[in-house]
Amino acid sequence: MTTDDPRPPPRRRLSVALGSRELKGLFWQVLVVGIAVAVVVFLWSNTVTNLSARRITTGFAFLGREAGMPIADSLVAYNPRDTYLWAFVVGVANTLRVAVIGIVLATILGTLIGISRLSANWLLSRLAAVYVEVLRDIPLLLQLLFWYVLMQALPAARAAFRPIDGVFLSNRGLILPAIPIGRPQLWVLCTAVLGVAVFYGVRRWLIARQMRDGKPRPAWPFALGLIVVLPALVSVLLGVPWTIEWPELRGFNFVGGLTLAPEYFALLIALVTYTSAFIAEIVRSGIQSVPRGQWDAANALGLRRSFMLRQIVLPQAMRVIVPPMTSQYLNLTKNSSLAVAIGYQDVVSIANTTLNQTGQAIEAIALIMAVFLTISLGISFFMNWYNARIALVER
Amino acid sequence: MTAVTDMPDVPRAARRPQMGNPVLRWLRTNLFSSIPNGILSVVLLAVLAKGVIGFVQWGIANAVWLTPANDSSACRAARGLGACWAIIPEKYRFILFGTYPFDEQWRPALSVMLFIGLFYLSSRRALWRRELVYLWIAVLGLISVLMWGGVLGLSFVSQDRWGGLPVTLILATFGLAFGFPLGILVALGRRSNLPAIRSLSVVYVELIRGVPLVSLLFMASVMFPLFMPSGFNIDKLLRAQIAIILFAGAYLAEVIRGGLQAVPRGQYEAADALGLSYWRKNRLIVLPQAIRHVIPPLVNTFIAFFKDTSLVLIIGIFDLLTTAKTAIIDPAWQQFSVEVYIFVAAIYFVFCFAMSRYSRSLEAHSAHAS
Question: A33 CB near a chain B CB, below 8 Å?
Answer without folding.
Answer: yes
